[in-house]
Design brief:
This protein has about 300 residues and is an alpha/beta fold. The chain has helices spanning about 5-15, 20-25, 30-45, 60-85, 100-115, 130-140, 190-195, 230-240, 285-300; strands at about 50-55, 55-60, 90-100, 120-125, 145-150, 165-170, 175-180, 190, 200-205, 210, 220-225, 245, 260-265, 270-275. The strands form four sheets. The protein has a five-stranded mixed beta sheet, sandwiched between helices. The chain has a four-stranded mixed beta sheet with strand order 8-13-7-12. Strands 10-9-11 form a three-stranded mixed beta sheet, covered by helices on one side. Helix 2 crosses helix 3 (about 30-45). It is globular and about 70 Å long.
Length: about 300
């Protein structure tokens, strides 16, 4: 098979993004260039690598098999380049992804500790939703990802080989309310009261379509404002624009004018924060970052 590194990189990007258009934007290519690369790769492989559907493309079984080998090959080339240009044995690069609230809770402090202990380790980060992070880990564009899950905390996807998921922290949801609002002086609020409140939500997925709205509220919640960024949602709460869900782990970074209150008369909503990666041995830089994230998770839980 005559395959190029460019073709393998495009394959990896298409597998992560799910469409030729998104892969082209990420790589800085035209869509036609991505299509040509994938057509050439399919011709070289002698098998169909993608199934086309109205929303984009999905890897076939042979496509997933080739992706696994492509990730190994591309990582080996990256490791060789890193070794050739490294200035010390305790350095190296690691790529980390995280879902938005994990940034101020875990990632920033872990990176600060890592810079003190292992200053030669170079970390690049990317913020995304949990499904997007899982795809990136599977595609090999991330080494580690901090993701979130709801009970019963199944594997983050159904592909083989199974991803390694290490629980870092469990936390529960609360409701962020304006401190000067009707719930600001209370310790808890009922689900019935919340059902009448205006909500500030963000786009979600099929598992949680309204991020920021308390799950299972009676009736149809009124979403007055939508914002993708969680910090924007909290500042809207401070402005009195509505309420949104949040976790007590965010207490150190809550904006002024926001309080967290519990929800009475409803089942506790538990969220698990986990570190996800492909199976196999971790390179030394990823091991160092993993240890830093574990330590920060322990401090947050304590």
């Amino acid at each position: 098979m005559d395959m190029t590194l460019v073709g393998l990189r495009v394959l990896r990007e298409v597998a992560e993004r799910g469409t030729f258009t998104a892969a082209a934007e990420a790589l800085g290519y035209t869509q036609s260039a991505v299509s040509r690369q994938m057509a050439g790769l399919e011709q070289a492989a002698g098998v169909r690598l993608f199934d086309r559907h109205p929303g984009g493309v999905r890897l076939t079984g042979p496509g997933r098999a080739l992706l696994r080998h492509a990730v190994v090959a591309l990582d080996a080339v990256a490791a060789a380049d890193d070794e050739l240009h490294s200035t010390g044995t305790d350095g190296g690069a690691v790529r980390l992804g995280f879902f938005p609230p994990a940034g101020p809770v875990l990632v920033a402090a872990a990176l600060a500790a890592l810079r003190r202990d292992r200053p030669r380790v170079r970390v690049t980060t990317r913020e995304a939703t949990t499904p997007a992070l899982v795809r990136a880990v599977r595609a090999g564009t991330l080494d580690l990802a901090v993701v979130t899950s709801r009970p019963p905390h199944r594997s983050p996807d159904t592909e083989d080989p199974p991803l390694r998921a290490e629980p870092l922290l469990e936390t529960r949801l609360a409701v962020a309310v304006p401190a000067d609002g009707p719930f600001g002086a209370r310790d808890h609020v009922s689900a019935a009261e919340l059902a009448r409140e205006p909500w500030i939500a963000g786009p979600g997925g099929t598992a949680e379509p309204l991020l920021g709205v308390w799950p299972g509220l009676p009736g149809r919640p009124v979403v007055r404002h939508t914002a993708r960024d969680w910090l924007t949602r909290l500042h809207l709460v401070a402005a009195g624009a509505g309420v949104t869900t949040a976790t007590p782990a965010l207490l150190p970074v809550l904006p002024a004018g926001v309080r967290l209150v519990d929800v009475a008369g409803a089942a506790a909503e538990i969220r698990r924060i986990s570190l996800v990666r492909m199976p196999g041995a971790l390179a030394a830089p990823a091991q160092a970052l993993t240890a830093a994230l574990r330590r920060q998770a322990d401090r947050t839980a304590g």
